[in-house]
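Entry for the shared binder. Reason: the reviewer on the internal report wants the predicted structure included alongside the sequence.
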Amino acid sequence: MKTKTGKKVKTKRPVRKAKSRSGPSTATRAIGHYVLPLVIGGCLVVCLGAIGYLGLESVAASEFFDVKRVEVSGVERASKQGIEALVKAETERAGVWRADLIDLKAKIEKLTFVKSAAVTRVLPDGIRVQLVERQPLAVVIRNGNPQLVDAEGSILAAAESEEKELPFTMTGWDEAKTEKAWKENIERVKTYQKMLEEWRAANVLDRVERVDLGDLREPRAIVADSDTTVSIAVGRNNFGEHLVRGIKAIVGKGDVFAGVDLVGGNMILTPRKAN
């Protein structure tokens, strides 16, 4: 535009305001694209897990997993029937799938002669029990009754029948509930086993009725002679040699002499006391 003086004057053009854009922000779009699918997916996983769990519980509780077979191995002295009955009683409601094997193992290991047990599932309807038994190594007279003991000095059970592998009994067991008594009883079992080995090798095992291990420093063998019994000191080692010598010293004289003492390397006969 020109003025009266002929100069051009610039006219100001009106400034247009930017139109505000309506719609979701970037953060909102991110939630829609990423977070929402994750939430939905998580819900689906939880639902599927719950459905699977309920289905599994339903299957586990079905008759398909009822215990029908109990396999027990490693049994020599323990009661196989007793173990089978225990397993069936403990798994009657739970079945094979939900059976508490740790608890079942602990209960089996409390049974007589059982040292350790491995318990496993045999799907769909079986339980397998593998035993390691405690082995009796001596027969001990306690309160007048013969009882079996193991290498750890534990009383296992009453010796109800003749033990062919343990042909003589032991007296002198320490009943005190002390560590000293426990250690000495273990030593008694070891001494019993050593005697058994040496006397079998010396072919005099059948002459021994019992051993007195009350004093571990002076163990004695009780043998039969002349329709009575004689006590023979057998030292702390070389049990076979000492017993053979003692038997030779007393043979045919049991009605006169009550025992044979070992003094140094000499066998001394002890006369019976007059009535």
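Summary line for the report: The chain has two domains: 65-133, 138-271.
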